[in-house]
Amino acid sequence: MMPSPKTNAARAFLLTAAIAAIGGAALANGEKRTLSQQLAHDIREHAVLLGGDNPVVSELILKRNIPIPYSYIATLMRTPNAFGDGAACIVCHASSDPATSYRGLDLSSCEGMKLGATEEPALAIFTPGEDPKREALGRRLRNNRMPLGVQFNVPTDSPPIIAVRDWIADGAKNDAHFQANILPLFSTENAFAPDTPACTECHMSNQEPP
């Protein structure tokens, strides 16, 4: 069942409230914007449009700064399909270095995958040699939270997902199999679901991509 236009408007309303709050805090502290904060700034400057919901967001959030309880926003951010069909995620993975990757997560190398998210609070996305089912990476793939934009009903037992799961369970070795069959999946569009970007488009190394 598809969300109603009113439901979509409400979701956009709350989403933009959270983004706007992040952006406002960044400007108040005089700090350089992170990727998340830049998005908030772009929305405030109307550089990013929100389709049919834009008038609602503009009038009720951007102009009036109506407060939304964080507890409610936090719940929505962590709920699959909360903002429509597809991945549910915290709006942006704010990096400690706004010029690099979201959450400081590097999916372009074996070492980066094992290290996990380096921005505080740091987070390992899996444990080599253990079933990743309940680990961060396993949950995001299994629950269609990643790649960004994946539909909620896309099967999560596809050959690429199974290959990553088995590689982790086998110790996440940086060997010929990893280089030839696992690593390329993270830089390939549509590898884990149709019409989705490559993982490394958002999660790259700790320097600007070429």
**Average of per-residue pLDDT values:** 65
User: Span between N and C termini?
Assistant: 42 Å
* Global morphology: globular
Quickly count the helices.
8
Question: What is the ordering of alpha helices and beta strands?
Answer: HHHHHHHH
Enumerate the spans where pLDDT stays under 50 for 5 or more consecutive residues: 86-96
Number of strands: 0
Strand content is: under 5%
Helix content: 25-40%
Q: What does the radius of gyration come to?
A: 18 Å
* Helix-and-strand structural type: mainly alpha
In short:
This protein is mostly helical. Helix content is 39%, strand content 0%. Helix 1 (5-28) crosses helix 2 (35-44) and helix 1 (5-28) packs across helix 3.
